[in-house]
């Protein structure tokens, strides 16, 4: 068995950067223009952090709604079971 590490080519890096940039929302892509890979990675990290904050906020809001639902309602139980999975 060889322990050689496979090397990634510059073309492969450029392709991955392009794919990563395509995952960002249009507004963020526009602000980047032809940004460096470093700037793109920083912007992607910021975007992911913002998504985490949004998920946390939505989770809190959903918890508040769940608290206000009738405890024995069938719909509330379905939502609770979905949240647990």
UniProtKB/TrEMBL annotation:
Gene Ontology biological process: regulation of DNA-templated transcription; regulation of growth
Residues covered by the BHLH domain: 1-51
Organismal lineage: Eukaryota, Viridiplantae, Streptophyta, Embryophyta, Tracheophyta
Pfam families in the record: bHLH_ILI
Molecular function in Gene Ontology: protein dimerization activity
Name this polypeptide is given: BHLH domain-containing protein
Gene3D superfamilies associated with the record: Helix-loop-helix DNA-binding domain (4.10.280.10)
Family (UniProt): Belongs to the bHLH protein family.
């Amino acid at each position: 068995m060889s322990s050689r590490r496979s090397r990634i080519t510059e073309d492969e890096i450029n392709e991955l950067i392009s794919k990563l940039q395509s995952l960002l929302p249009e507004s963020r892509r526009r602000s980047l223009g032809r940004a460096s890979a470093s700037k793109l990675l920083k912007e992607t990290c910021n975007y992911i952090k913002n998504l985490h904050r949004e998920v946390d906020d939505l989770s809190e809001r959903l918890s508040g709604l769940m608290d206000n639902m009738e405890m024995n309602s069938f719909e509330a139980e379905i939502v609770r079971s979905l949240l647990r999975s």
